[in-house]
Structure formats: structure tokens, C-alpha cells
């Protein structure tokens, strides 16, 4: 199906306080991966990197404390994060209202080649 109503997207178990919904992927007949993240304050992703692919994250609502390499950024609504392949990155939601963002990876299954420097892979990583 080429059109996905975001409110009806399939949820994949991810992390405590971090809900992940598939917006585009195999079921839509595309080779890319796009997901909607809906996170509570304090939720996020531990330090990790994607071996072979870049990642783009568009923040829709809320504020993230972002680490890319050795740099820290405060990223908020209507900002876009570009993360080159093999670049360690992590984030935590700092806004009390939580955060929403859309993440893009250029190919399906790229999350399976993610290496975690801190923490473990998400619960549903193999299901995405």
C-alpha cells in the first residue's frame, strides 16, 4: 500500500517510553525505511552507529539532547538531523511533553547492521 495513515501505522516494540511506527518499508514496496518515533521525556537511544548508511531525523515536536561524535546539540521542533554512516550518535528527549520525529534510513534492514557502543539493541529491531 503506497499510502499510510500515520495514526494507523504498524507499531514495532522499541524501548521503554519510545514508541516506533513503520511509515514506509517492505509493505509499501520500497527499499528505504521510514519510521515515526513518539517518545516520552527521558527516553531515547544509547550511543550507536550505522555501519553502512546515513540517517536523517526530522524533529516534529519536542526537544532532544543529541550527541554526534564528541559534540552535543539541543535539537527542537522543525529541525533536521543528518548523521553520516559510522558516526556514533545518541539522544535523549528533554522536553516535558516528549517528542515526535520521523527517521529515514536509505535501505531496509539497515538497523540490523547497527553497532551499539552503549546499551542494547531495541526490543523489536529484528521485526522492523
Automatic annotation (TrEMBL):
<protein>
    <recommendedName>
        <fullName>Cupin type-2 domain-containing protein</fullName>
    </recommendedName>
</protein>
<feature type="domain" description="Cupin type-2">
    <location>
        <begin position="38"/>
        <end position="103"/>
    </location>
</feature>
<dbReference type="InterPro" id="IPR013096">
    <property type="entry name" value="Cupin_2"/>
</dbReference>
<dbReference type="InterPro" id="IPR052535">
    <property type="entry name" value="Bacilysin_H2HPP_isomerase"/>
</dbReference>
<dbReference type="Pfam" id="PF07883">
    <property type="entry name" value="Cupin_2"/>
</dbReference>
<dbReference type="InterPro" id="IPR014710">
    <property type="entry name" value="RmlC-like_jellyroll"/>
</dbReference>
<dbReference type="InterPro" id="IPR011051">
    <property type="entry name" value="RmlC_Cupin_sf"/>
</dbReference>
Amino acid at each position: 500500500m503506497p499510502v499510510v495513515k500515520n495514526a494507523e501505522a504498524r507499531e514495532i516494540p522499541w524501548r521503554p517510553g519510545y514508541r516506533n511506527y513503520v511509515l514506509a518499508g517492505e509493505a509499501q514496496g520500497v527499499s528505504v525505511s521510514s519510521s515515526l518515533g513518539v517518545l516520552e521525556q527521558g527516553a531515547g537511544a544509547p550511543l550507536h552507529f550505522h555501519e553502512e548508511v546515513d540517517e536523517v531525523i526530522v524533529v516534529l515536536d519536542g526537544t532532544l539532547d543529541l550527541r554526534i561524535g564528541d559534540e552535543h546539540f539541543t535539537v527542537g521542533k522543525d529541525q533536521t538531523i543528518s548523521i553520516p554512516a559510522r558516526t556514533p550518535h545518541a539522544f535523549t528527549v528533554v522536553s516535558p511533553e516528549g517528542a515526535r520525529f520521523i527517521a529515514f534510513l536509505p535501505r531496509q534492514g539497515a538497523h540490523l547492521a547497527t553497532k551499539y557502543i552503549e546499551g542494547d539493541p531495541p526490543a523489536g529491531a529484528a521485526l522492523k
